[in-house]
Amino acid sequence: MTAKKKSNAAMQAGARRQPVELPAQHVAKPGRESELELAPRCDAPDYRGSGKLEGFAALITGADSGIGRAVALLFAREGADVAVAFRSSRDDAQWTQRAVEAEGRRCILLQGDVRDSAWCDEAVARTLDAFGRLDVLVNNAAFQQHAGAIEEIDDARFATTLDTNIGGYFRMARAAVPHMKPGSSIINTGSVTGLRGSEHLLDYAATKGAIHAFTKALASNLVARGIRVNAVAPGPVWTPLNPSDAPAEQVARFGRDTDMKRAAQPEELSPAYVFLAAPVCAGYITGIVLPVTGSVNAI
User: Fold this and answer.
1) What kind and span of H or E run contains 277?
2) Rounded CA gap, 201 and 164, in Å?
3) How far apart are CA 243 and CA 30, in angstroms?
């Protein structure tokens, strides 16, 4: 009886206990962090900065909420100025901006669509104008929508998923690379779905697998220029992405099928991005896909 109870309990191995019970809640797309009944944890109160990114400038797409917000906050805590790129949730983006500035760093907001090449070029230009440099690009913006069968995914939906998730990463990297110096890095947000597939996220999983391949290819392409390229592949993470996609009853069970039997909070992902961004930590690492999935045998 005791062994069974232990096996069914969610694992808590971090600096503080994380929520296990999630609200049975559905929100309208694109989903705003401020709408969630359970606020995602992004602040990582036990994380102490040590200047790993001192003087750096970072551009993070999808940084208004979720993983992007958590990464922006820790980058600032490590000494970086941050450009917060987002598409529609200005209130959420302003919250991220205030959090970055509370860490004593500068922050600008960049509203636009990664499907637009001109906007990607403009986002990089505005980052350079504000901070005078660009050291880290985090490609994180994404579109996701469940489908019960492949027939439900029409050409317009398929194009939106591809053009946002892999097309946006490609455009942002293309705009950023000419302005990056040796020691700079690009970090792409992949997914466990790109490693294992997902029966109800056919197009999304395909783009995440493409992102992993793009990461390795771009790492090879840029190694001679001293620019590292890596990816983080999260498992289920409590952000607005899933409550704005899945039905409420599924949201309540989100993450329970992991070995840890719970979804991650964004603050449990963000240190991986710091590690990959910081030359003092990952200066000899390029072309990897780092799984942070809450399960064994992710790859």
Assistant:
1) helix 270-277
2) 15
3) 10
What tokens were used for 234?
């999260």
Q: Which of 128, 218, 224 is nearest to 171 (CA)?
A: 218
Domain 46-292: give its CATH architecture: 3-Layer(aba) Sandwich (3.40)
In single-letter form, the type of residue at position 42 comes to C
Peptide bond into 30 cis (omega under 30): yes
Strand boundaries in 81-207, DSSP class E? 81-86, 107-111, 136-139, 185-189
Counting Cα atoms < 13 Å in the Cβ hemisphere of 99 gives: 25
CA angle 70, 68, 32 (to 5 degrees): 95
How far lies 71's CA from each of 49, 261, 297, in Å?
Answer: 13, 24, 25
Q: What is the pTM of this model?
A: 0.93
In angstroms, the CA 128 to CA 121 distance is: 11
Domain boundaries, the chain: 46-292
Q: Which of 47, 169, 204, 273 is catalytic?
A: 204
Q: Does the annotation count 204 as an active-site position?
A: yes
For residue 73, what is the enclosing H or E element? Answer: helix 66-77
Residue-wise pLDDT for 34-70, tens only, equals: 788 888 999 999 999 999 999 999 999 999 999 999 9
Q: What is the pLDDT of residues 156-167, one digit of tens each?
A: 999 999 999 999
